[in-house]
Specification:
Elements (H helix, E strand, L loop, with lengths): L4 H4 L11 H11 L4 E5 L12 E5 L3 H5 L8 E2 L13 E7 L8 H11 E9 L1 H5 L2 H6 L1 H8 L6 H7 L2 E6 L2 E2 L20 H5 L2 H4 L3 H17 L1 H6 L7 E2 L3 E7 L2
């Protein structure tokens, strides 16, 4: 089984690790449970440490980056979970469903193997308006637009949604996902940071280099701060990241 993360995920853990505030919000959403299936688990961010966890991940590259004491991992896709019905208390998916080939099928699989589902995701429309993509990497907007939106409306069509929570992005977020450095734009100049953001990592290297130089020039000239500098004063901001809890209360 070969996936795109076998190519773009080779240095994933250099910048992608659980932010403790987001981790606490996810753990609260999981509730008082004894077993969790982490679907599209990657290197293991946001897996709870106080209950039994099994991880599912299609990429061998990502599996090799899991910590030695991480939960046991099975190589499989979210669309074909190799477990009987109701094998787990909760099925968790964190910043992964936008990568799935058939998100609705994967969500139905989560519903099949667990009575409850917790999904950490982003609203596509909000991400398309983020300054990094509108002003500097418009090719990412095209990539996002080419996928079926995996937002609240689509999830609600498949899952029995109990609630949806805003997941604000902290100004000092330690998980380097797309909007993590919203008030630290200098970080987006780093190749390691870009490699940890899947949609940047997939761009043509020449295009990515040219767009990076445009951002570098705007930071040096003050053009970025003239347009977006107010962001540097914020402690957190809503960029469309959401946490959905579905299934039995």
């Amino acid at each position: 089984m070969t996936t795109k993360y076998d190519t773009i995920g080779q240095t994933y853990t250099a910048t992608r690790r659980a932010d403790p505030r987001i981790a606490a919000q996810i753990r609260t959403a999981l509730g008082a449970v004894s077993s969790v299936l982490n679907v599209g688990a990657g290197a293991g961010s946001y897996e709870p440490g106080d209950c039994a966890v099994v991880a599912v991940e299609p990429s061998r590259t990502m599996m090799r980056q899991r910590a030695p004491r991480a939960a046991p991992v099975v190589q499989a896709t979210g669309e074909a979970l190799p477990f009987p019905d109701r094998s787990f208390d909760v099925a968790l998916a964190s910043l992964t469903i936008h990568h799935w080939e058939d998100a609705e099928r994967g969500l139905r699989e989560m519903h099949r193997v667990a009575a409850r589902q917790v999904v950490f995701y982003f609203e596509l429309a909000d991400m398309e308006r983020f300054w990094l993509f509108t002003d500097y990497f418009p090719e990412v907007t095209a990539l996002l637009a080419g996928r079926p939106a995996c937002g609240t409306a689509r999830l609600s069509h498949v899952l029995d949604v109990q609630r949806v929570e805003v997941v604000p992005v902290p100004a000092d977020c330690v998980d380097g996902f797309g909007a993590a450095y919203f008030r630290r734009p200098e970080r987006y100049l780093e190749d390691g940071v870009q490699q940890g953001i899947s949609d940047l990592a997939q761009l043509d290297p020449a295009v990515r280099a040219a767009r990076t130089e445009q951002l570098r020039a705007d930071l040096a000239s003050g053009a970025w701060d003239a347009k977006h500098g107010a962001l540097r004063q914020l402690d957190e901001k809503d960029f469309g990241y959401r946490l959905l809890v579905a299934g039995l209360p």
